[in-house]
Task: structure prediction
Amino acid sequence: MNRKVINKELDALVSLLDEPDNNMFGQVRKKIFSYGTDAIPALEDAWGAYLDNTIQQRIEVIIHHIQFNHIYNELQEWKTSNGQDLLKGFVLIAKYQYPNMNEKSIIDEIGKIIHDVWLELNNNLTPLEKIKVINHIIFDVHGFKGDAKDMHVPQNSFINKIIETKKANPISLGIIYMIVTQSLKIPVYGINLPRNFILAYMGGMINDDKKNTESDVQFYLNPFNKGAVFTRREVEQFLSQINVEHDKKYFLPCDNITIIKRVLNNLIFSYEKSGEVGKVDEIKKLQPALD
Result:
């Protein structure tokens, strides 16, 4: 079906949004849903044309549901690709709250960080020297920092807001750190630690052909503390302090799907704290896309 025919059919359907009969309106809404994101421009035009609050609210609900379903499907596709593109997964989470965000501007900003790090690196640097350079660029030059004052606000889980405020929670800082380092073939990966999220500098880039062991970990990093370096012993001490059993998964990298799942869990916690029950329910409905 060509674009002109689609637009004509959508215009006809949108003109029926003032249908007073709920059953008839339900059929109209279902048909509009079937067009997916193609229906959004026509709905947005209709919102401005109607002055009736009830009709405008109907349009807003329909647009939100279409966008929500689109994000769900995109997350499913991302998961099917084994979550190879971590930035893509992180951007999709932000699009739940900010569906019209400028994705290119986010990619460009991350690209600037990667370029600035690349300019300062050379093959003669040791792993610790490379980390010192990366920490300086991310935390000193670009000004990113952990939001210790208000760590659990939802904004700290959305990449567009993080780029804007330069503040984030541990896992969001860790994701940015990993995107930068892995883009430059520096083997830094996430550790899904309880009550915190840390990073590990590995002996080499991870691939599916080799199973990682603790001997592959050279040292650990805390992105929430400006990339501070620490040892396995300190991870053990932290787990003891919070009364968590020393499982090997807390010392080895997790995959990107696990990381984005944790971002969703953080958002659920954030919205629960702020009393936004509707947001909590919606995020929980997104979770199966990654199962």
